[in-house]
Amino acid sequence: MSYPFQIKSYDEYKEAYKKSVEDPEGFWGEIAGTFEWKKPWEKVLDWNFTEPKVEWFKGGKLNITENCIDRHLKEMGDKPAIIWEPNNPEERTRVVTYNRLHKRVCQFAQVLKNNGVKKGDRVCIYMGMVPELAYAVLGCARIGAIHSVIFGGFSAQSIADRLYDAQAEYIVTCDGAYRGNKDIPLKSVIDDALIGNRTVKKVIVYTRTRVPVSMLKGRDLWWEDEMEFAETQVEKDGVVSFPAEEMDAEDPLFILYTSGSTGKPKGVVHSCAGYMVWTNYTFINTFQYNKGDIHFCTADIGWITGHSYIVYGPLSAGGTSVMFEGIPTWPDAGRFWDIVDKYKVNILYTAPTAIRSLMGFGLDPLKDKKLDSLKVLGTVGEPINEEAWHWYDENVGKKNVLL
After folding, report:
1. How large is the C-alpha radius of gyration of the chain?
2. CATH number of 10-327
3. What pLDDT digit, counting tens, does each position of 104-123 carry?
4. Does residue 331 have a cis peptide bond before it, meaning omega lies within 30 degrees of 0?
């Protein structure tokens, strides 16, 4: 089943492109009209490159989580929103339905509220690739707090720099994270990053690896305790509710920092409405996503690709997104292909760097892997070289998929 404004042919693409150039306000206004708004916009696009100042859907009011979760509940409440594949293939998989996602996001929004977080506050999220990371991201968006996810591989100094720049007052982290054969002590890294910090008020810690951690009284809180209390606040007689904060179209949704590999890390601010409409439209059209498809983006949510094509793009489309905690070469170099077969993945989106790494292991890891559910292959991160492209097409896509 397809979506409104889904492009199905090259002729349709040319027609859509022509309209987007000649009448961008009409083009994007029609697409935005398929979302839920608390108040309609007054003007689709107001731009001035001299200042510079660009505003999308000016005057419009919405909350992105209502478009990613609430509007799907009636017809798709029991459908998988997120399928979580753990680092260890022998550990239990978790399937998060839209109903479960709604409950957990409302709970965590209440946790934030209970701890003094309000609209416009900055919340730093430094976690492994677990469903709770998505709950934290969406919980922030639910109350209008600005989330800033930091990749779990960054050092204490890198985190300290980002905390200072964002003026973050709250942190959500884990005791530790699993990544391949490594255990990463996330909480102890946060503790080091907070030496000398005078702005952070609360640190919420989710239990993942059960590594011993130091908990500072009055500042550090256990996720599980906070969520248990919040559950009694958001659920009454089996009905879960937490009102979504009304956000202006141009209110900040999140801050995401560059890696810093080309100088000082730069914080990029993404606003609510334009980002929502763009990620939804690109997700549906770039990947030719149809309702019921299983989408597997292998990126970390600490990067923009993970924000857009694990969380906001798929969920705004009512899609099913695979979230993978581990790495492609552990416990062996067939891990991606095992996941594709296990969940009958239809769309695989990964990095040329990962493909080149897997090429080095030869074709043995691909033996006995069906991969017949795949319909679309994509790559992201940097341009893919011709050799890797052909290897991906021939050995993963069997020359039978869109690239």
Report:
1. 21
2. 3.40.50.12780
3. 999 999 999 999 999 999 99
4. yes
